[in-house]
């Protein structure tokens, strides 16, 4: 896996990443840090990646189990250390999974498998952060 990050050099702290798969991702800093607030912060991007990785696992596990999933959302809340490096110290992932007659036990199992076995992003972040999860199963 490869990625190139380039400073835009436009009088601020904006960066553009080009991923190995050819996609572009903008990042920026907060105004008090020299940024212009034009894009997510790098740490927000890292948190979003963890949520995307976990959601991917949950949807894949449920659909492979022949469950009819119609929506999956993950709300993430993170805490960071107060001193540099300000690593994540706690991350909570709340899954809202919608489907037709989804058994809550199947959703719980999918979230557990993602957390314990498959999600590379949360496994990495668990080196500094306490990872916790919760779920809501919705009909629809």
TrEMBL record:
Which Gene3D superfamilies does the UniProt record give? 2.20.25.10, 3.30.300.20
Looking up InterPro entries in the UniProt record yields: KH_dom-like_a/b (IPR015946), OsmC/Ohr_fam (IPR003718), OsmC/Ohrsf (IPR036102)
Q: What is this protein called?
A: OsmC family protein
What organism is this sequence from? Answer: Roseateles rivi
């Amino acid at each position: 896996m490869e990625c190139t990050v380039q400073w835009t050099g436009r009088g601020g702290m904006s960066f553009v990443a080009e991923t190995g798969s050819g996609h572009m991702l903008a990042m920026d800093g907060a105004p008090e840090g020299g940024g212009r607030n034009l894009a997510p912060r790098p740490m927000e991007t890292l948190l979003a990646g963890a949520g995307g990785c976990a959601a991917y696992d949950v949807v894949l596990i449920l659909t492979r189990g022949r469950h009819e999933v119609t929506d999956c959302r993950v709300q993430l809340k993170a805490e960071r250390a107060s001193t540099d490096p300000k690593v994540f110290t706690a991350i909570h992932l709340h899954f809202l999974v919608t489907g037709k007659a989804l058994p809550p036990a199947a959703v719980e199992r999918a979230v557990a498998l993602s957390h314990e076995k498959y999600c590379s992003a949360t496994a990495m972040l668990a080196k500094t952060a306490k990872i916790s999860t919760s779920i809501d199963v919705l009909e629809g």
